[in-house]
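go over this:
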Amino acid sequence: MTDQANEAAVPQGKAPSLTHKLFVLAILAGSFLLFLVQPMVARMALPKLGGAPAVWNSAMLVYQALLLGGYAYAHWLGRVPVRRQATIHLAVLAIAALWLPIGLIGMNLPADAEPTIWVPWLLVASIGPLFFAIAAQAPLLQRWYSVSSGGRDPYALYAASNIGSFGGLIAYPILVEPNMAITSQRWLWTGGYALVFLLVAGCALLLPRKAADVPHVTHTSEAPGWRLVAHWILLALVPSGLMLATTTFLTTDIVAVPMLWVVPLGLYLLSFSVAFSDSRLLADLIAKFAPLCLLLFGATLISGNHEYAYLNAFIGVALLFIVSVACHSRMYALRPAPDRLTGFYLAMSVGGVLGGVFSALIAPIVFDWTYEYPLLIIAAGALVPQVFLIPLIGRLWTGDSQVLRIKTLAVALIVSVLMVVGLRDLFSLGSMAVQVAFVGVAIVGLLSIGRKLAFTVALAGAIILFGGYQALQTSAAGARTRSYFGVYTITETPTEVRLAHGTTLHGVQLTGERSRTPTTYYARNSGVGLAMAAAPELFGPRARIGVVGLGTGTLACYAQPGQDWRFYEIDPAVVGIARDSGKFSFLSQCLPNPRIVIGDARLRLAEQRANSLDLLALDAFSSDAVPMHLMTAEAYATYGRVLAPNGLLMVHISNRYLALDPIVAEAARRGGWYAERLYYNPTPMEETVDEAGASDWIALSRDPKTLDRLVARGGGWTVLVPEFGVPGWTDDYASIVPVLRPAKMPWDDD
């Protein structure tokens, strides 16, 4: 007697209410925990591992490998009878519980630890068994549900799985992190794990008892061919890669809003819920119009227009959702019988891993811009289901295979001609020629929807015309550099050279005889400018000065003979731009052969001897955000240990999205610092002549006399006072929610 026979013995029809609800709840809870643990462990690891990209890329690979391992384990478990599966899986969950409460194991990493080796080891040793056991929940419980419910289609439960994942993803930054310290979070997750164990045990009790008495037999449905498996993998790869590429593209070229990464990932997870739902109306409607949306919006985003940043961000995430629903709906249509379910999800997991590896690991090395985004948009155009929008378009594509090939070649020829005309006249006729050519290509694309090859050619032409060609020109000019931290763009004019990290300006150098002039946030009347000018008076001619964040090296032009300077920079690409590119000369003119310490500043400062600096300027930014682990009370304790008793700490908090002054004020209160704040707003003359920019700096010292002498030099300093109701950040608790500034929308007044 077979498992399938046992399934058939259960009456068909509507699933029992208890069975359905219990399985849904178990899958929801498991997926919720799975996506809750990732940001939670990231917060735990940040002070220990630092913020280097190799750390988080390695962590991402660990998560994906464990997820893939969980799916492979669920697939392998399908070889044994279902009740024996339940016994094995409950034993795995019980063994994994030995790692509770969840957290990092107590080990000190070597100072020269290689992230690609130590990070996977630390994470696997800390949470590997727990993550692995929970990762197997979705495919395994769906298989059990099919058995328990009399062979009902279990794929709709995958929608519940992704709703749970979405819930965990949203709950952490909005509910868990703002209201609970890490210690409490660990016990919350532990309680959730216990609940999942009980729910899984309950599901196991609903399995047919006779199935345990017979061996599991071979599959009754036909095995999928390699072409179908490859198709599953591609359909999973493109949305997964596009989710990460959309996040990178939006934060790099549109708007660097904190927590923006939550939105693409959340919509990606919700797309499964729509695509795998029993109700097909919404999924089919989205899939039908997906090619049209790709053609109209996929190309326009590539142009990188910042005038309506939030509108473009909305278009970007909406397009991701549409593509994800279309691809996942196609996967759902190609799904195998329930007895092949775990292999189907294993292929899906492989595609997800490959998409993540392409966008997060390969693209930053191979490309100097977010080229993965347009490439994945084009790939989506080739993969999403296509039907003729109206019968008239279908009649245009009638004929035998030879006729259809000729028509496809005609589309390619028309698109090529329009591209040549548009790009040739780009500089002579301006953007109007490109727009006219784009409209022509768009019309050809609309008439090609329903014929994938022709449509993909038109889509590629539209992307090249509307921003792709200009991106290629910038790359060819060598004006862009990319690392795992983002994209750095250098813009040169006859009077200045600018460096932007994503959408945020990170430095300006004037040309000619004024090339040593400190600019932007570092102008002479800014907080840090006044502090650097006061350093000889405060600390003598041999002042020891440290700067966290190199940028273009602007601050080096405050260096005086006899002073000992050192920079701390996490990104080697920035060092190459400031010191070796020849584009910026602050270092070569003002501080030749500077001492630059590469690595996470908090970790590198912790290695230094006490009282080794007189002045430390904290100017570390990733695009528009200050790394959180550099702003905790423990981080300030590290700065205080490195600084001399009368030392001065300068903290740069200029930010479009976060009001960080309450965080610094609370850290000062806890650490016994005295603090003064200077918001510098340059005059129109300073803005025009010196390229000075508005900046917000806070000066801290444990010696009030040091601050008094700085403030006495003028500048408009004000005492920094803690803000009631805003808790400070620690390694155990930190949330950006209380300090988020209101978003400025396109319709707001300037």
About this structure: The radius of gyration is 29 Å. The longest strand covers residues 643-652. The CA atoms of residues 36 and 171 lie 8 Å apart.
